[in-house]
User: What shape does this take?
Amino acid sequence: MIKYNLLCSSCNENFDSWFPSSKEFEKLKKLKLINCPNCNSFNVKKSLMSPSVINKKNDNNNLDSKKYLEIKNKLKDYKNFIQNNFEYVGNNFTYEARSIHYNNKKKNKGIYGNASAEDIKELSEEGIETETIPWLNENEN
Assistant: This one.
């Protein structure tokens, strides 16, 4: 999953939206399926986004607790979004991803699950896009 900050060229409205991948964003934009929530224009583009980078020199090798909590909360938000909008396939992720890709198997939802780094590499070599995110356990502080 990737989150883009989008800008409507018609009304200058800024808004965020989630996409399974950058290729999916481009596909949806080309099909005119991305529109501004303010004016309904399809004249939407990706806005400049700056990543939040932690500089160890300024941090004295200690992660600022406020920044840590912000990152942790953002990861929790990602996890909740995925759990609420995607189908969990567990250890069958690689099989399901290939089934969808090669058999044009239609799913009502995207999928998420478990895969090794080697599995992800093989899927990528086959042209199957995946995203990897850190997955926080419920009991982590």
Summary: DSSP finds five helices and five strands in the chain. Residues 2-46 form one domain.
